[in-house]
Amino acid sequence: MRLLFEISHLKYATPATVSRAGILYINETDVGWLSFILSWIDQLELQSAIAKPTLNVLVQRYVTATAQWTRKNLKYVIPMTDFGTW
User: Fold this and answer.
1) How far apart are the first and last CA of the chain?
2) Cα(71)–Cα(31) distance, rounded to whole angstroms?
3) In the list 36, 41, 46, 57, which could disulfide-bond 51, CB 3.0-4.6 Å?
4) Residue 18, φ and ψ in degrees, nearest 5
5) What's the whole-model pTM score?
6) Which residues lie closer than 8 Å to 28 by C-beta, 6 or more apart?
7) What is the pLDDT at residue 58?
């Protein structure tokens, strides 16, 4: 069984909790969401050889612009990170 918890900080986590649960903290500002998307695209098994490069271009051109527009023009009821938005 695998569980995935998305938390914003480890303020109340004890060392025992972190070691037993195998918690891995990834700082959003260091990694960014784009690297996860591009890695996912690289792992896809697609029939066409041109599909992966095309997806890379489309994601970088349109998804990035959409994320920036969303952050600038919309008000979130619950605080969201870029990872949580997508």
Assistant:
1) 24
2) 18
3) 46
4) -65, -45
5) 0.55
6) 81, 82, 83
7) 92
